[in-house]
Each structure stands twice: as structure tokens, then as C-alpha cells.
Amino acid sequence: MSNGDTLDKLVVFLAKRDGIDKLVKTFQYVSKLAHWGAESSLPELAQRAKSWETASGLSRKAFRSGRFLAGFNALRRGPVPVPGELGALAVLANAGEMVYFFFDHFTWLSRAGVLEPWLARRASFVSAFGEAVGYVFFIAMDFIMIRRGLRQERELLREGAKDAAEKEVRRIRVDRVMRLMATAANAADLIIAVAETDPNPFCNHAVTLGISGLVSAWAGWYRNWPS
């Protein structure tokens, strides 16, 4: 791939809302790890990293304004047109995501000083709880679809190497990679949400949060990168 092609794809990637979000999320969690690593030996550098982390986090919240409408619209349209358990899972997943993004507005406004500071903690808890619920069901949906894809792939391979079958097998494999990336991102974000709703030494450790944030950002980067 030429440098020109890479640059063109980067421009397309950064033109997307999700592309910008993944880039700033990378800044946020790289700076979190930098703050942790420099806190004891380089306090001035650690403070600058902390400021970068805070600014990145607030920027992401501002940039996600109105995103809860996507979940609301998904609920308004009804379950995905797939038979079986996916319809119910889609409703629960989108409801959780809608709660997450809606209450994230109050967290952002409170931390920015527009609303009362005490509201940040409560709004953040509700937002993280909805986020965790949504991720659990999104992960379940992806596992179900991966399982169905594996079953369909085995059936196609038994039929023989027909051109149509080969194309369908390639499509299934690409879809599986994308769903595995989505599962990795959702699992990493679930850890971050659990750290907010039920603080514990493992989830709340800077290294755990930093690595989880980067896994989520880079998996999302992979999924959104232009083909």
C-alpha cells in the first residue's frame, strides 16, 4: 500500500465521528498510562499527562452529544429482522446504550462546571450501568452470530468449492473478524464500566483501565478503517 493510499484512508477515517472518537480515546488512555508510569519519578510530567487525559475524556463526551438518539431510533424501529433470540437481545443492548449516552451528557456538563459538581458522580454511575448492560447483550449477540457463521461455513465447505460458495465463505470470515474485534472492544469497555459502577482494585487499576481503553480504541480503529 502506498503512502498516498494510507493518507487517503486516514482522511476518510478521521472524517467519521467514530474515527475521531477512536483517535481521541487513544490519546486519553495513552496519557492515563503515562500518568501512572511517571507519577512517582516525574511528577510534573505526570500532571501534564493527567491534564491531557482529562481534556481528552471531556472532549469525547462533548463529541458524543446526541448519540443516544441512535439507540432510541433502533428501539423505535423495533428489533433487528433476525429470528430467534437476537430480537430481544437487540432491544436490551440498544436500551443500555441509549441510557449510557443520554446520562453521559449530564456527566460532561457537570465536570465542565455547567451543572452542579455532585451530579457528575450520580450521572456517571447511571451512564456506566447502562453501558455495562448494553455491552453484555452486544457481546452475546456477536457470539450468537459467530456461532451461526461457523455452522454456515461448515455447510458451505461440505458442498464443494463452487464460486458462489467461496465468495460466501470469504464474506462469513470477514464478518467473523469484525465481530471478534467488536467483542474485544465491548469486553474492554465493559471492564471500564464495571470500574465505575463497582470499584475494585483490579478494574480500577490504571494499567487495567489503560490497556482496556487502548484495546477498545484500536479494535474500533480496525473496524472503522476504510477497506
From TrEMBL:
<comment type="similarity">
    <text>Belongs to the peroxin-11 family.</text>
</comment>
<dbReference type="GO" id="GO:0044375">
    <property type="term" value="P:regulation of peroxisome size"/>
</dbReference>
<keyword id="KW-0576">Peroxisome</keyword>
<keyword id="KW-0962">Peroxisome biogenesis</keyword>
<keyword id="KW-1133">Transmembrane helix</keyword>
<dbReference type="GO" id="GO:0042802">
    <property type="term" value="F:identical protein binding"/>
</dbReference>
<keyword id="KW-0812">Transmembrane</keyword>
<dbReference type="GO" id="GO:0005778">
    <property type="term" value="C:peroxisomal membrane"/>
</dbReference>
<keyword id="KW-0472">Membrane</keyword>
<dbReference type="InterPro" id="IPR008733">
    <property type="entry name" value="PEX11"/>
</dbReference>
<dbReference type="GO" id="GO:0016559">
    <property type="term" value="P:peroxisome fission"/>
</dbReference>
<comment type="function">
    <text>Involved in peroxisomal proliferation.</text>
</comment>
<protein>
    <submittedName>
        <fullName>Peroxisomal biogenesis factor 11 family protein</fullName>
    </submittedName>
</protein>
<feature type="transmembrane region" description="Helical">
    <location>
        <begin position="123"/>
        <end position="144"/>
    </location>
</feature>
<dbReference type="Pfam" id="PF05648">
    <property type="entry name" value="PEX11"/>
</dbReference>
<feature type="transmembrane region" description="Helical">
    <location>
        <begin position="86"/>
        <end position="103"/>
    </location>
</feature>
